[in-house]
Design goal:
Elements (H helix, E strand, L loop, with lengths): L2 E8 L2 E8 L3 E5 L9 E3 L3 E7 L7 H4 L2 E6 L5 E5 L1 E4 L2 E6 L5 E9 L11 E7 L6 H4 L3 E3 L6 E3 L4 E2 L1 E5 L12 H13 L3 E5 L30 H16 L3 E5 L6 H20 L5 E3 L14 H22 L6 E2 L19 E4 L6 H12 L7 E5 L13 H13 L5 E4 L28 H4 L3 H15 L7 E2 L4 E3 L10 E4 L5 E5 L5 E3 L7 E8 L4 E2 L3 E4 L6 E3 L8 E7 L2
Parallel strand pairs: 3-5, 4-11, 15-16, 15-22, 16-17, 17-18, 18-19, 20-21
Antiparallel strand pairs: 1-2, 2-3, 5-9, 6-7, 6-10, 8-9, 10-11, 12-13, 13-14, 23-25, 24-27, 25-26, 26-32, 27-31, 28-29, 28-30, 28-32
Length: 566
């Protein structure tokens, strides 16, 4: 990133502000209301504050918040983060054009470098094509069942799993950017990535380092700002490629090690660093799962459920941008907390050994669970995961279709073994604390496994269904035409306007029911293994509102798209 410095004196205090290439406007500021820096809507302005005092432990001694007032009068209290030494930084983004005024508030009111500093950031309309900036960050749609952008544009979540993607085993920039480019070009729009406190390893395992070390000092005395400086580049690059970072704050079992107070500090730092970007917050990974070698697993699980609920409530209170919040579960997010109201949507771990029909049952259960919220699978059958037997693209693809169809087509997260824990050629990740090894496929080969392309093609098909963002599961509207067929039951999702999407885990003639008598529909078959869509044909409902269809030849799963003609 290059910068063009500018500076002047205002109210006796020296500052300079610089405009960086890309998504971040970097400012070192006191007050500049008469010549404010300008930033496009959705992009991030960063203001640097410099303490006037020498401090022994600045991270723990001082808390700085910055109150931004938008042109329409709303006030956002944005946390600042300690950037090392005597520097604090605040990052801000807005979507309303006009002057966004700010004033800082420090817990040390006698430090004029941190307290009472005022200024203005001028927000101008965004002129680019990045959907995260053009349409805004994600929110729950009005039906409380689906996701959309801030402006209401529908959003189908197609995630990828990079749990350890902030480590130096996925080197910056070449490895990280190559993987991001591949996923963006295929149509992935979310990456689930852990903010330094990782799964499948003990604390301070060398495999959890990035080029600047660990995220925390070994005794958890304070954060390591340099770790997060290196992580910043990766998070910003995902956004620049139109990919929403789903930031997982920590794996659940780190909570007993840090304690609730330190974990809240950890999350405050993440909100201050990345909350201004169009991110999604995932509080913890496998929220209630104790450490693999824990002595009191039952006690740790109970503490984690209570403690993470408390941490999530605090996260919700301190995030001024109100990014979506979920948590990655051992089974379901709603069952991982004591109060589901702290969540915006329900993430499932639907199981690596779980067959498709059981994936669908779990998703349908989530659809029918209160409180109503969007439901998606954040971890299912990782392609190339070496369990008995090793999972294939067929396993990953069928898990996608089964869970997605039975949860209203909100979305799904894919995983490829080799990427999530970042195997390198000739240097695989190695064993977990429990002693097992999930496989040795290098990340750059895992990137090319067929499952990612198959799920990308499925996303495009679902988005082609008229009114797809109002699809709801209706298993009662489809059945095998031959009642003696013992294959898992076909699945159906339908819109209020009559469009239908049916999924057949195995080939066979299907019967659609509940159609308007005598009505004619346009239909086509989709091959989930190749991404090819067959020639359109017509279906006409009988007087009983039934119609049957058989897929083309091919001993694999199929999808059927049915739309009212005209």
């Amino acid at each position: 990133m290059t910068h063009a410095p500018r500076g002047r004196n205002v109210e006796g205090r020296r500052f300079a502000w610089t405009i960086g290439m890309g998504l971040l406007l970097m400012i070192s500021a006191a007050s500049f209301a008469d010549d404010p820096p300008r930033v496009e809507a959705g992009k991030v302005a960063e203001v640097t504050l410099t303490s006037t005092k020498a401090r022994t432990d600045p991270f723990n001694e001082v808390v700085v918040d910055v109150a931004f007032t938008t042109p329409d009068g709303a006030t956002l209290r944005v946390p600042a983060f300690w950037a090392g030494g005597n520097a604090w930084k605040v990052r801000y983004s807005g979507r309303t054009p006009g002057a966004h005024k700010f004033v800082t508030a420090s817990s040390d009111a006698d430090d004029p470098g941190l307290h009472g500093v005022s200024g203005v950031v001028e927000v101008v309309p965004y002129a680019g094509e990045n959907p995260l900036l053009r349409h805004g960050t994600l929110r729950v749609a009005d039906d409380k069942r689906h996701l959309c952008h801030a402006d209401g544009t529908p959003f189908f979540w197609l995630g990828d799993t990079w749990w350890m993607g902030l480590t130096d085993r996925l080197a910056w920039p070449e490895d990280f950017q190559a993987l991001a480019d591949d996923r963006a070009e295929k149509g992935f729009n979310v990456v689930q990535i852990v903010a330094g406190l990782y799964p499948d390893m003990p604390a301070f395992d060398p495999r959890g380092r990035n080029e600047a070390g660990f995220p925390w000092e070994p005794d958890y005395a304070r954060i390591n700002p340099a770790y997060f400086d290196a992580a910043d580049r990766r998070i910003a690059h995902l956004v620049d490629r139109g990919i929403t970072p789903c930031v997982v704050g920590a794996w659940g079992y780190h909570l007993p090690w840090l304690g609730e107070a330190r974990m809240k500090q950890h999350w405050r730092n993440l909100v201050a660093r990345w909350g201004a970007y169009p991110v999604v917050w995932c509080a913890a990974g496998e929220t209630t799962m104790p450490f693999y070698l824990a002595e009191d697993k039952k006690g740790d699980a109970e503490r984690q459920k209570r403690g993470w609920t408390e941490v999530i409530a605090d996260l919700r209170a301190i995030d001024p941008f109100h990014r979506l919040i979920t948590t990655h579960p051992s089974r379901t997010a709603r069952a991982s907390v004591t109060d589901p109201a702290v969540l915006d949507f329900d993430m499932h771990q639907s199981g690596h050994g779980t067959p498709a029909e059981k994936q669908a049952a779990l998703a349908f259960e989530g659809w029918n669970t209160e409180p109503v919220m969007p439901v998606l699978s954040g971890e299912s059958r990782y392609e190339a995961l070496e369990i008995n037997p090793t999972l294939t693209a067929d396993d990953a693809r069928k898990a996608f279709w089964a869970h997605t169809m039975a949860s209203g087509c909100v979305g799904h997260t894919y995983g490829a073994n080799g990427i999530w824990q970042v195997n390198r050629e000739g240097k695989p990740y190695g064993p977990s604390p429990a002693g097992n090894n999930w496989g040795t496929t290098p990340w750059n080969l895992a990137m090319k496994l067929p499952g990612s392309s198959q799920l990308a093609a499925a996303k495009k098909l679902i988005e082609s269904v008229p009114g797809w963002n109002r699809l709801a599961p209706h298993p009662e509207l489809v059945a095998w035409a031959d009642a003696s067929n013992k294959a898992p039951a076909p699945l159906c999702a339908a819109t209020p306007d009559g469009a239908r999407l049916a999924y057949l885990i195995a080939p066979g003639e299907v019967a659609l029911s509940g159609l308007p008598a005598g009505s004619t529909f346009a239909a086509s078959w989709f091959d989930p293994t190749t991404g090819a869509r067959g020639a359109p044909f017509e279906l006409t409902a009988s007087p009983e509102g039934r119609a049957t269809a058989s897929p083309p030849e091919g001993e694999h799963d199929w999808a059927l798209v049915v739309s009212p003609k005209g």
